[in-house]
Amino acid sequence: MSDACCNVPPPTGISYRRVLWIALVANAVMFLVEVVAAAWSGSSALAADAADFLGDSANYALSLGALAMGGAWISRVALLKGLAMSLYGVGVLAYASWRAWLGVPPEPITMGVVGLAALLVNLGVAVLLYRFRDGDANMRSVWLCTRNDVIANLAVLVAAAGVVGTGTVWPDVAVAAILAVLGLSSGHSVIRHARAELSA
User: Fold this and answer.
1) How far apart are CA 193 and CA 125, in angstroms?
2) Which of 35, 69, 125, 136 has the smallest CB count inside 10 Å?
3) DSSP E strand stretches across the chain
């Protein structure tokens, strides 16, 4: 396979900017929807997903800013995003622990409906971002965020089914913990990639 087959469109391309704007708006809207749904249902998994949508909205905004600044700022912003993803993971673990201590099961219908809506939104964004997944640290972090979102939405649906089946809080808390570990892992990957670019 020739090198040309693996070339990634430059991050300053208008198509990439347009995709980031679409992703930013979609994530901001879903953050508001999931915050309300999490409060209504008492779901830590939905709350974790809402926090992820907020973080991703900030990530897309930072990515747009990094494109405007260019140069080493792209890697610096990616490093900042990696740290934010790691902090998100720690925060979700703390919140899931609190929900486990309370022991109150969430309302699963709201979890399922909102989780499905979030999945459809993130699948659309993932399709748009797929061809940029092997770019620089900034582009890679955007792709990882979106990929993680799709996985998170599927996990929320599993949690909703688990709550229906068991009548307990544990499926919800378990999924929130999994999302936290995923955030920590992705954050570590982005930080490592960004540091390598900055030291090159």
Assistant:
1) 23
2) 69
3) none
Residue 99 lies in a domain: yes
**Tell me: the pLDDT tens digits for 126-183?**
888 887 766 666 666 677 777 778 888 999 999 999 999 999 999 999 998 888 887 7
Residue 82 lies in a domain: yes
**Structural domain boundaries, residue 110:** 12-199
Cα–Cα dist 138/151, whole Å: 20
Pull the structure tokens for residue 152: 């998170």
Which class for 162: exposed (0-12), middle (13-18), buried (19 or more C-beta within 10 A)?
buried
Give how far the C-alpha of residue 130 lies from the chain's centroid of Cα atoms, to the nearest Å: 15
pTM surpassing 0.85?
Answer: no
Angle (CA) 47 48 51, round 5°: 85
